[in-house]
Amino acid sequence: MTEYLSPVIETKNLGKKYPIPKGYRELLFHPFLKKEKPALENVSIQVQKGEIFGILGPNGSGKTTLLKILSTLILPSSGYALIHGMDVVKHEKEIKSIIGVVVSDERSFYWRLTGRENLSFFSTLNNIPGDEALQKIEEIAMQLGFADQLDHRFQEYSSGTRQKMAIARGLLTDPEILFMDEPTRSLDPEISRNLRTFIKEVLVRRYGKTIFLSTNNIQEAEDICDRVAIIHKGTIKQSGIPVQSCVQSNLPLDELFVRSLHE
Fold first, then answer.
1. Are residues 166 and 181 in the same domain?
2. Residue where one domain finishes, among candidates 131, 158, 174
3. Strands 78-83 and 52-56
4. In degrees rounded to 5, what are phi and psi of residue 18?
5. Domain check: are 70 and 121 in the same one?
6. Neighbour count for residue 214 (Cβ, 10 Å)
7. Cβ atoms within 10 A of the Cβ of 1, count?
8. Strand order from edge to edge, sheet including 227-232
9. Domain range spanning residue 135?
10. Do residues 205 and 91 both lie within one domain?
11. What residues contact residue 110 under an 8 Å CB cut-off, 6+ apart?
């Protein structure tokens, strides 16, 4: 049961703009003119402890930008974001000690190293002592169901096992909050179902993690999220929709999603 107390994640009027490269003509005639493209505008959300909160939107809607700001990877241009009351700009070090990030970027792993060697390397980066790291790696791999493949090279892994490696890396520091960027992208339906079950039944119900999940998969949001916010072109169209109430009111999430994109 989700506890609705003070939010563990909160944003208020959060915005992010990226500079637009100038052409030769603009550089010549308007050298000091600043051109920017908004990626996020006035994003305000709240995430409670122990829930799975989904950011649902099409590709290019701003989901990943929001996740990167919340995980202190990039700075916002306006507004603020808090993790347990700590500002993501002022308290980067403290926030990084309580969060984990799962991204589906296979290029961030070393393909010629084994799974164990990859995870040992990332443990070192997180200042986890050697013996403790070895034990954690074994335990996490057991939980995720790929302990028998730990000593295989990363390049030999299936897409499902590579995704499990991404989750394992995010769990090394035993984070209280886990940010997941499209965790089942490019996976076949059976592997996707198994990962969703692991997220909901193990990470949240057994270990009490708070999950912030970005997705463009409506079925995924409906399957595992407690609440969702719908984002389009950097703007939140619907905020904190309880998924179960959508089901009970016979208002499909996909209908609400499509309606939001046309508002």
1. no
2. 174
3. unpaired
4. -115, 140
5. no
6. 24
7. 5
8. 99-103, 177-181, 210-215, 52-56, 227-232, 235-242
9. 105-174
10. yes
11. 117, 118, 121, 154
Distance from C-alpha of 146 to C-alpha of 149, rounded to nearest angstrom: 5
Per-residue pLDDT tens listing for the chain (263 residues): 444 468 999 999 999 999 887 676 766 666 666 778 899 999 999 999 999 999 999 888 999 999 999 999 999 999 999 999 999 999 999 999 999 999 877 788 999 999 999 999 999 998 899 899 999 999 999 988 899 999 999 999 988 889 889 999 999 999 999 999 998 877 788 888 888 898 999 899 998 999 999 999 888 888 899 999 999 999 999 888 887 666 555 556 766 666 666 66
Q: Tell me which residue of 82, 93, 103, 67 sits closest to 186, measured CA to CA.
A: 103
Q: How far apart are CA 215 and CA 44, in angstroms?
A: 18
Q: Cα–Cα–Cα angle for 211, 134, 145, nearest 5°?
A: 55
Looking up tokens 């990167």 gives 68
Residue 92's identity, in one-letter code, is E
Number of domains in the chain: 2
Report the amino acid identity of residue 15: G
In whole angstroms, what is the distance from residue 12 CA to residue 215 CA?
21
